[in-house]
Design goal:
Blueprint: H1 2-6, H2 8-14, H3 21-45
Helix pairs in contact: 2-3
């Protein structure tokens, strides 16, 4: 997660998706927060997370 968070700007500017890099960064950041929250809940309950 730290690697993704550290390279969020790079990912947003080099991803070819609709919208500007600011919009893409926002979407990526939102998804990353969701993944982090889900992983924390899974850790707390002794489960795991599969990201596809």
């Amino acid at each position: 997660m730290a690697l993704l968070r550290a390279n969020l700007d790079l990912s947003a500017t080099t991803t070819e998706r609709p919208g500007g890099s600011t919009e893409r960064r926002g979407r990526l950041e939102s998804r990353l927060r969701t993944i982090e929250a889900t992983a924390l809940r899974a850790l707390e309950s002794g489960a795991g997370v599969l990201i596809r």
